[in-house]
Specification:
alpha+beta, 5-stranded antiparallel sheet
Length: 132
């Protein structure tokens, strides 16, 4: 009897995968950066969509409310528009905002609205006047 010989099939090997520490770190950094961008962008979008007074600029109008937290930027043609932002002062004290070089630059200023972090002595001030 003759013995059957099975031809040897060469084993196929997958190419060796090289791991890269730098590649793993790069992916993590990219992931964190993307997450931060989404959070920051969402927060910024919320401020604009909600009418947060922190986004107010000269020419905008804001509502009057019992609480400063409830005041919002609205269109000047809206019936609840109470004040027009005549000017914006950044990184100033209350005294500086009250001065001639502060909101005094806009003679029609009737009120000031401050946006300050707790414990800080300087902040953002909106110089407000009547809606025309």
């Amino acid at each position: 009897m003759s013995e059957q010989v099975t031809p040897a099939v060469p084993e196929t090997t997958e190419p060796e995968k090289k791991s890269s520490v730098a590649g793993g770190i790069g992916k993590k950094i990219l992931g964190y950066a993307l997450g931060a961008a989404i959070i920051f962008g969402g927060g910024l979008a919320w401020k604009y969509l909600s009418g947060d007074t922190d986004i107010a600029k000269a020419g905008d109008c804001i509502t009057e409310a019992a609480s400063a937290d409830d005041m919002k930027v609205v269109g000047c043609d809206k019936p609840d528009a109470k004040y027009k932002v005549l000017g914006v002062l950044e990184d100033v004290t209350q005294t500086e905002a009250d001065s001639d070089t502060g909101c005094g630059q806009w003679p029609a200023t009737t009120d000031l609205f401050s946006i300050m972090e707790v414990g800080k002595t300087k902040g953002k001030f909106l110089c407000l006047g009547p809606v025309a």
